[in-house]
Structures are given as C-alpha cells and as structure tokens.
Amino acid sequence: MATLEIRDLHVTVDTEDGPKEILKGVDLTIKDGQTHAIMGPNGSGKSTLAYSIAGHPKYTVTRGSVTLDGEDVLAMKVDERARAGLFLAMQYPVEVPGVSVANFLRTAKTAIDGEAPKLRTWVKDVNGAMAQMKMDPTFAQRSVNEGFSGGEKKRHEIVQLELLNPKVAVLDETDSGLDIDALKIVAEGVNRYREQGDRGVLLITHYTRILRYITPDFVHVFVDGRIAEEGGPELAEQLEAEGYDKYVKAGTTAAG
Amino acid sequence: MTVTDSPAVARAVETSDRVASHLHPLGSFDLDDHPVPTGREEIWRFTPLRRLKGLHQDDATAPFGADNLSVHVDAPEGVTVRTVAADDAARGSSGHLPTDRVSARAWAAAPGATVVTVPAEAMVEAPVVVTHTGTSMDGASAGHAVVVAEAHSKATVVLRFEGSAVVADNIEIVVGDGAHLTVVSVQDWADDAVHHSTQHAKVGRDATLRHVAVSFGGDLVRLNASVAYDGPGGEAQMLGLYFADAGQHLEHRLFVDHNAPKTRSNVDYKGALQGEGAHAVWIGDVLIRKVAEGIETYESNRNLVLTDGCQADSVPNLEIETGEIEGAGHASTTGRFDDLQLFYLQSRGIEEDEARRLVVHGFFADIIRKIGVPAIEEGLLATVEAELEKNVGKPVSA
Hints:
Order of helices and strands of chain A: EEEHEEHEEHHEHEHEEEHH
Number of strands of chain A: 12
Structural class of chain A: alpha/beta
Distance between the termini of chain A: 42 Å
Largest sheet of chain A: 6 strands, mixed
Helix content of chain B: 10-25%
Largest sheet of chain B: 10 strands, mixed
Strand order of the largest sheet of chain B: 1-18-16-14-12-10-8-6-4-3
Shape of chain B: globular
Largest interface: A-B, 29 and 24 residues
Strand order of the largest sheet of chain A: 6-9-10-3-11-12
Shape of chain A: globular
Order of helices and strands of chain B: EEEHEEEEEEEEEEEEEEEEHHH
Oligomer: heterodimer
Radius of gyration of chain B: 20 Å
Number of strands of chain B: 19
CATH architecture of chain A: 3-Layer(aba) Sandwich
Radius of gyration of chain A: 18 Å
CATH topology of chain A: Rossmann fold
Helix content of chain A: 25-40%
C-alpha cells in the first residue's frame, strides 16, 4: 500500500529578481497501482513538480505538503526520499565521470535496501535488466551516463527503475528525444514495473505519443503551476487533437 | 563542474631562436646566477617564500646539513643501490642544470647521492622503494638521488617522503635507450614539512618514462618535474595527483623540452582542494624546438574545488618553434564540486557523504588507473579516502 499525496504545493525558485513562484497550489493523490499522466506546455512547471518531489535544492517549498504513506516527504533529505520509496527518472540524467555504472547501481541498491545485494543474483539481475532495455553489458563498465546518447541515458534510467523498484516512480519527460524504437523499449520497461500491481507512476510528458504505450489511469493538464483539468485517458486524445491552446489562453487570462 | 577548456594552442607563444623564455631560465650550477628571489619573478610568483624556511636564501641564513632525514632503500634482486660521494660521475648524468636557486643550493650542499641502477635488459617486477623519513624540523637537508634504467630494462621506482623535515633535493632520472621506467614520487609528509624537489629526466631513444607525482602532505611542497630527450622516439607521461587541505601549498611545475624529433609527451595532473587557504599551483610548459619535428604533446590540469576558501592557479604554456608537428594542445579546468552530480546520486538513495566520495574517486580514477602499479593504485585510493574523511559532510555553498 503506497500513496503519494500532494496538497496545495507552492514552490518558488530563486532568480536574479528574487524568488519566483512556479507551482501555485498543486493537489494530486497517487494511489498504488495507479498511473497518472501530467501533460502541459513548456514552462508550465511540470519538471518543477518532479524535482520538488525528489528534493532538488534549487526549489523552495513555501506552502503545502507532500506525504508518502503519511510520512512527511518534505522533511526528508534527497537520499532519504529515495530510501522511503520515491524515484525520479530525470529528463537530463547527469554524467558522473569515473564512476562505473556497475559501481553506481550496486551502491544505490545497497543504500535502498540497507544491505549489499547478493553478488551472484545481483550480477544476473543487472545483466537481465540491461538486456531487457537493449543495453550492451559493456555499459556496466562505463562511467555513469558519460558519452551515452540521449536514448541510452533514458534507458539507463529505466534500468535503475527496475533494479531499485521504488514504491512510486516519477518519470520526467522520459519520452522526449526518443525515437520510436527506444520509446517502445522504455515503455515496456515502465509497464513491467507497473505490472507488479502495487506501484504508483507519475508520468510527466509534453507529448501524447508515449500514452499510446503506457495507458494512464488519469490525465492531468498542467498550466501555469497548477492542474487546470483532470480526466481519464480520453483527455489525452483530446489534447492530441486540440493542443494546449485553450488552457494556455485561460491561464493567461487568469494570471492577468 | 564548470569547464573552461582552452582550445589547443590557444596560448602558444612564438619565440625566437634563442630559447630562453621567462618560464625556463637557462640553467647553471653557479649560485651567483640565481639571485635570492623576491617573489616577483615569474618562476617564484606563486610560491609563498616566507614559508620556504629559508631554502631560497643562503647558507648564512639557512644552512644545510641537518641530520633530519633517513633514507631507506628496498630494492628487489637485480637492482643495484649505491651511496656515492658528491663528485661521483653519476651526479649530473641526467643533464640536469639547476634553473632555480633552491635546486642550485641543494646541488652544492648535497653530501653525496643515492644511485639506483636497473641493469641493461633487466625486467624487474617488484618496485624499488626509496623511503625518506623526516625526523625533525630543525635545520634543513639537501638530498640527491639518481635513478638509472639502463638500455631495454623495465622497472618501477617509488620515492616516498614521510614525516617532518625541511628538504631540498635534486632527483635525476636517466632512461636508457628502449627502457621503460616508472617513477612515482609520493609526498605524504606530515602537516609541517617543507619540500622543494627538482626532478629531471633524460629519456633515451625509443624509451618510455612514466613519472607520477603524488602530493598529499606537507605545509609546502614545490615540485619541479622536467624532461628532455636523448634521441628520437622517446615518450614521457607526466602524471600527477594532489589533494590540498586547509593552509597547504602544493605546487607542481612541469617542463617538457621537446629537443628531439618524433618524441611524445603527455602531461596530465588532477587535484582536489578543500578547506580555508588550500592553495594549488600548476604550471605546465612544453617547448617544441626547431629540431623537434613530428612530435606530439598534450598537457592538461584539472582542479576540483570542494569547499570555499581554496585557490587553484593553473597555467598551461606551449612554446612552439616548428610547425612540423603531429599535434600539440592543452587544457586547464578548475571547477566547483558539481551539485547536480550529488543530487543525482542522492536521488538514488546514496547518502551525501558517500555520494561525495564517489564523485571525488571518479574524478581521480582515470589518473590512478594510468599509473599501472596495482600496489600504488590501491594505496592512493585509500589515501584519497582518508583525505576526504577530513572534510566530508561540510557543505559547499553555491
């Protein structure tokens, strides 16, 4: 049983002109087994929501709460959030020169589980996860994300999702920049994770394309720092046909 | 990390036939040719002279001769170790001419020299380890060592410096034709030591030298490492790794003199700095003489600044006198600890201290891997670990 609950979340980011509010009151509940898609135009604050849940130091929460199974996520450090069961697949995974993928994965797994994984099964698990994501086993010896193509970085994120197996996964534009083959591979990985039945997914995307492969239970339209409309998968179809224009105009009017 | 790569040959200096730039004054054994520095000279401007314990002055102010340094040599079979008098022919066999006053003073004052010789065609697996242990900060001592790898031999020599002492030394390295020699100089001094080391190598025809400078300890370490070639086809890899803590001054000055055709050099130094007043200086200089056609060189220095209050000075220079070269370039970067890397690792459950360790290990990993001596590599990883523990967990402000 895992529930991620976001209530009245307000978030600012520091700019040269002082703090600027990006999230303006977000309410969202993700229960286990549910996949929520968040769609919205550029600059609407989708990624800020993802980073704020993960605890990126650049963002300041000024109001509201985020809880995971009742535990106060905002009081936790970044690594504590991960150990509590949150995972963020990043839009731009970070390169860490000199740290091998194998070392990174083992260190992360050990941190999440509180004990080192059994060597024999672990190697098998890593190789299996990489094979399913169509990543050559030699990637294990390469530096984390260094020299990876955009698609390889995203697949590496999903390898981590499968190995670390969090309670709730936030996928921040994991689909952007992927060709159709890579998109299918990534979607299959996310679906394997979902098939466990008790995992939550918050899928942030700019495009409807990925929703053909990962069917969401709920779709939220994100405009100007808050959720402007909610619905089922059919809302994605509507966005596909009509775009964000009517929401953006409404948002501008409201803000103005 | 903020990376500011300079394009290759960005700072190339065209010089005249007379190769005597401010970066490498003409050498001389005569002390009168090296006046007491004021600190304004190009070769001294980064060094805090008042912390040199008088090494740069004269015998009246700061005489040599203290019995404060013991030298112990562990040599595998097949390697000869001799202690010779100051007038022995081994001294000067590298072609070294002091280019600064401290080196010239140490040359004049050294009572003798330790000479390590790897005979021709000998393949020596185990490293020769020369351990220098400082026992007192009273007075100063002048050291001299000569490492000779005769033709077609292969060996590794480790120079270790530990304890507390004030030392000025000249280390000569002679790599015979076709020989492969690795020299690792580990400055693992106690916090108060002062060490001025001049290490000069002559690389023979088709020979390979791998020189590694590792500086962790000491109040002040200034190490001049230089290479010249004794024929075509020689290769020099000059590697370095340093970790400057609060108040420490660690200075490495490199000079590669491409005085023969078809020679190669690669200078690669990496350093981390942490704590108030930590100061690292890296000066790289590669001279490509007219005769040195078809050479290839690259020099690089990268600094990782872990906390506020540190200073890293990094100056690569390239002096080119012939256009007929295979390649020449350099890079210098100084970057702060990357908060994004930290965030990424932490977002996978890895605690901040551990994440920091991973990033710093990663930073040094490629240099350590290049050393090629497993026992040294493991020891270095452990030392990096110990250095990090001094400071781990202290936040870096943006």
